[in-house]
Amino acid sequence: MSLVIKEIYFPPSFQMVESDQALADVCQKAAQSRHIALDTEFIRIRTFYPKLGLIQLYDGEQVSLIDPNKISDFSPFIQLLANQNVVKVLHACKEDLEIFNHYFQQVPTPMMDTQVVAHFLGFGASAGFASLVEQFFQLKLDKGASRTDWLARPLTDRQCRYAAADVWYLLPLYQQLDQQLSQSSWKSAVQFECENLVKNSQQLKQADKAYLDIANSWRLNSLELMRLKLLAKWRYEEAIKRDLAQNFVVKAEHLWLLAKNDPKNISHLLELGLSISEVRIHGKKMLQILDQSRRSNKDDYPPPILRLADDERYRPALKALQQCLKEITPSDLPTDVLATKRSLEALMKWCWFKKQDPNDLPSLLKDWRRVFGRKLLQSLQNF
After folding, report:
1. Catalytic site residue 39?
2. What is the residue-averaged pLDDT of the chain?
3. Does residue 95 have an active-site annotation?
4. Catalytic annotation on 162?
5. Is residue 20 annotated as a catalytic residue, yes or no?
6. Structural domains in the chain?
7. For the whole model, what pTM was predicted?
8. Distance (Å, whole) CA 345 – CA 351
9. Quick one: average pLDDT of 35-47?
10. Three-class SS state of 238
11. Over 242-262, what HEC string results?
């Protein structure tokens, strides 16, 4: 009986892993496999970092549900994550990578993301795991436990079976997708995309640039942006220190109001619409930061934020790029795999605003996309 048939015709079974020795045994056995499936269950509502509730691992024979609350020595699991002889298969892995990096300072490598593979094969950019399982195996997964509090204990049998299914079907799904991928010319491109996901997950966000994530920051002048930059940096660092989602420190729109209006006292903070708790806990600190901005050197002010939409070249250039994209995209590749509207805009910004800085290349001029990106860049020469 083949591996694929096994998972289709038998429901997922699992073992709970609740001790250091059990984890070591599971990881030792998994290290003998060429591929393992990984997933995590977590909660993230008010916290800056996700709270890990469960790790699922399937080595092709046994599903293991690892309870992080019961484990004190994760070194065997960390070694498995780093084992270059074992490919880790995940689906839509961005948050999983963040969890592994935060909790274990190690991301799974080498790694293949079945959502990325499916995108290259024409299943859409956000193909869901359950929908792919249904398409390939005609099985409808029970998603009734998807809103589980994964930090609560004990977990019910239904919750555990739901978690187990996420890796039980993942390996055979990967095998089906990989078989199709091997018949295309895009396998190395998929590997690059997966490696890039891993690489990006390890890059720390710069607190000094947190202000760029605030909505409508482009509406502010350089002085106002200086205020926002200092406020956003403080909020970001405070959120990490308190492990609190940034908007539960101070709402982003309130930082924007502070930067725009430069209040001088507590009463003015309340008049601007800040909550009583925001003012009570952080009011004095925010006023101190605003005072600090008044003493800042003008040479340190951020430059005004340029928007492509305000450039008269934008619309005709975007239209030309989109037409060029249709013409150069290979017939066996979905157009939005090669380039999205956002990546076309990044190419325009690089060309017009960043003076074609070779040290800050957009994604369309990297690796497998480079040959196509150069053709797209040529279509910008007339703008």
Report:
1. yes
2. 95
3. no
4. yes
5. no
6. 3-201 (3.30.420.10), 207-300 (1.10.150.80), 308-378 (1.10.150.80)
7. 0.93
8. 10
9. 96
10. helix
11. HCCCHHHCCCHHHHHHHHHHC
